[in-house]
Amino acid sequence: MIFTRLTLTNFGVYRGRHEFALRPQRDPTHPRPIILFGGKNGAGKTTILEALRLCLYGRLALGTRTRKTDYATFIRQRLHRHPAQQVPLQSAQVGILFEHVHAGVLSTYDAVRMWRFEGEALHETVSLYQNGTPLQTIAPEHWGDFLRDLIPPGLADLFFFDGEQVQALADDDREAETLAAAVRGLLNLDVIDRLHADLGVYLRQQERQDQTQAERDVEAAEQELARVRAQYQTSVQDRAQLQARHDGVVHRLEQARQALIQEGGGFVQDRDVLLHRQQTVQSEIERVTAALRELAAGLLPVAFAPQWCLRLQERLHTEAALEAAGHRTAALRDQAAQVALTLCDGAFQTQVAPAVTPQDWARIVAAVQAVLTPPEAAATTEPLRHPLAARDRQHLLGWIAEATTTVPERLHTLTRQLEQLEQAQQNLEQALSQIPSDGVATPYLDTFRHLAAEQGRLDEQLARAHQAVAHLERHMAQVQRTSDAAVARLAAMGAADARTTQAATIQVVLRHYREELLTQKLAELEQAIADYFNLLCRKQTLVKEVHIDRQRFTVTLYGPNRMLLPKSDLSAGEKQLYATALLWALRSVSGRSLPIIVDTPMGRLDRTHRETLLTHFLPHAAQQVIILSTDTEIDAHAYAHLRPAIAQTFRLSFDEEQGCTVVDQGYLTDPAPTVEVAA
């Protein structure tokens, strides 16, 4: 639902017809939901809020028990009074143009409520148009009901509220009453209770003169249920007091623990553990030291000369190659000598080439020897510096590889382990040196042990209290079942007709529905209060848990570790932020996408808390937020904060000479009025 236009005609301080464009900007990337009215006291800000309420609710805007005469007096006081006019005005009207989804269809509605006096008699007329034509789906006599149901009166205070309502929620004495009224309106509990009571009246009217056993059973069950409920309330209160004592002891125990730590008492209890750990660390140091000695007795000295190791490795590879080359040369020489011997044999020469002369054979032998003998065979062979067997050379190369790779890595690992162990040993020695004498730590230990014992006793008492409450809850549920069964038997008796049976059954269903609805919604409300309050306070862990008493509607706040957080410890600004978070949570739990109208929103907030409200609440509270403010609440600094979220601004100025309010576009902090909106 979105308000797009408000029209006032001779209403309050507004003379003639005034139209206010209220449509917010819905750009998904940069929404501007705020409509800001600015004016000094008496300029007509609250009149705007009254006009919206009256247009929607009529007489119900003043309360469910407002008499017609009181309503007429109120409306007469809202007629504009022209100081120069001899005959006072006898009529006024307010109108709202709004967009609303009804039966799955988005339509534009124009609602006008007009008042006209004839003598002392007040005549009220409601007009309602849908998309420019009179609403056809609902009879005209029920148009007022349609407007009222848009935002049920019980929910109105969650969407139309002022500083006094916020202050009422921030006041411990009035919070429970105000919250109970808000929750009853949110869940329509008044309707449920009224229906339950009406059914009870109907059933009593159907009773016979002579009371049957079933009726006596019902009466006895109801009395027992009332007694058990009283016991349950007492038990819950006792548990709450015990919980408060327990939380106090836990807090004092933590303080005693911190004091004990400051005096070194925490080490006293850890003495044996520290000594055992010291022995373990010493054993590890000895093990690592032995490993280092073993490493030093091996290849570690060689590892300290890595460049010489690499040069030796290279030389050994070179000599291995030279040795292999010498073997190849010797083999070739032997082969060349064998070939020459064969060629010089006379029998071979006669058999192969008898015509060749001995001189030619000599040249052939020389040529063959020249080919078969390698050139390096004629060179001088380089001497070996390390004449080793191949197996010994391979062992030496393996040691060099180990000395240049594995040994340094092993050395690094062991030295690092030794450093860590020696550091741990120093820390343990320091910790042991801080252990005070028993005479210094004993008083702190005694206090700590006394509080720990007290906590243990309170834990047991609290456990028994939880058991007692759980037992009474089970007993109360059993008595409730007995009562329901008695009611069912009474309804099933032949003397009761079908309507009596249905009425009794509906009573039981209503009771269960009320309990389940209240439990579910209060659980949602508790979580929402914690989330919104932490958001507004910008302290994510200030409130970890919120509990609302299901019977009395008192609110209890818990901080970290479920420590009780009394609301009396909150500053005045934090209390107002808490109340704002409560209203925000109630609106969120209601599940209705409706506009919010806030009159004088800042109250007692300091600058920091005001900036929080301006940053986190007002721009995000709803798709449309109408703010009615003075220049002291939203000053130039606050206006600059809100400006990115503002869609429309109106300046309200009361003209003393004319006796009416003049409306301009812009805000109070702007230098001068621009365009006058008043007709």
The stretches of 5 or more residues where confidence is low (pLDDT under 50) are 674-679
Estimate percent helicity.
Answer: 55-70%
Quick check: average pLDDT?
A: 81
Question: What characterizes the major β-sheet?
Answer: 6 strands, antiparallel
Q: How many strands?
A: 14
Radius of gyration, Cα only, in angstroms?
49 Å
Number of helices, where a helix is a run of at least 4 consecutive DSSP H or I residues:
21
Distance between the termini: 27 Å
The percentage of residues in β strands lies in 5-15%
Class from secondary-structure proportions: alpha/beta
Give a verbal description of the structure.
This protein is of the alpha/beta class. Among the domains are: 212-262 and 447-496; 278-432, no CATH class. It is 59% helix and 14% strand. The protein is built from 21 helices and 14 strands. The protein has helices at residues 45-57, 68-78, 143-150, 153-159, 163-170, 172-187, 189-205, 213-262, 265-268, 271-296, 300-303, 306-344, 346-352, 358-372, 390-404, 406-433, 438-492, 498-537, 572-590, 607-617, 636-642; strands at residues 2-11, 14-21, 34-39, 91-102, 105-118, 121-130, 133-134, 160-162, 545-548, 555-558, 596-599, 625-629, 646-655, 660-665. The chain has a six-stranded antiparallel sheet, covered by helices on one side. Strands 8-11-12-3-13-14 form a six-stranded mixed sheet. α4 crosses α6 (172-187), α8 packs antiparallel against α17 (438-492) and α17 (438-492) packs antiparallel against α18. The chain starts with a strand and ends in a 14-residue tail after the last strand. Mean pLDDT is 81; it is low at 674-679.
